[in-house]
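User: Can you help me understand a structure? I only have the sequence.
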Amino acid sequence: GPLTVNAGAEYDTSSEDRTGYINNFGVIGALKRDETNDVDNLGVYLQGEWLFLPRWSVSAGVRYTKVDFTSADRYIATGNPDDSSSTSYAEWTPTAGLLFKLTPALNLYASYGRSFETPTNIELAYRPDGLSGLNFALQPSISDQFEVGGKAQLGATTRLNVAVFSIRTDAEIVIARNTGGRSSYQNASGSTRVGAELMLESSLGYGLTTHVALTLLNARFDTDFRTCAPLAAFCNPVTGANTAVVPAGNRIPGVPNASFFADLA
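Assistant: Let's start by predicting it. Here is the structure, written out as tokens:
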């Protein structure tokens, strides 16, 4: 059967000028930070899809991503050395999927994919130990996702998608310290997200369409990790000084366990 192959490359760059000042109860004080932070991202990928039997098709792909962070420090003073530095993150991320056309109106599939999420400039901005310079000890998180589902055409005007999935993440990026209006980040050992999704879209006639989606998601940490205790002026998540334990099994904050969307257009 037909074989389709795509290849491509992309390049992105961004630059920020970051300054910081002593905060005198909301009034800007003396300069204490002045730097330029540059990020360059290069990605190349290859993917293909092959209809190897009349009702079976397979898809696979691989991507290489390299992200470079560079910081040029312009604020150098007594007790505040030159913190200019750089780091690079790189990863190969594969994906694969298998599709079976059970009937002309019903497709079943299974898929696997890996994702690679580097820290952002904001997450690198402050170090948990309170020292100057970017937090280049922070590492990217790697996720492996497995999904099975079905896609059904219900008549000529309605489509139904159903999926269940599991995502395992290593080196989850989490809060290490949040004091004085500054948030610093660290890597937790891992997390798991298990969920299901249902989507229905239909054309109702007379120019009307509707789209309904429901997602159920259980997102939890797999292992204990330490974060700075509330109001702790100084702490060290590595040694455990002035820290609190976030136990394994805790839900990941900010991730809803259910979400629902519907529209009529």
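Now, to help you interpret it: The mean pLDDT is 92. Helices lie at 121-124. Let me know which part you'd like to focus on.
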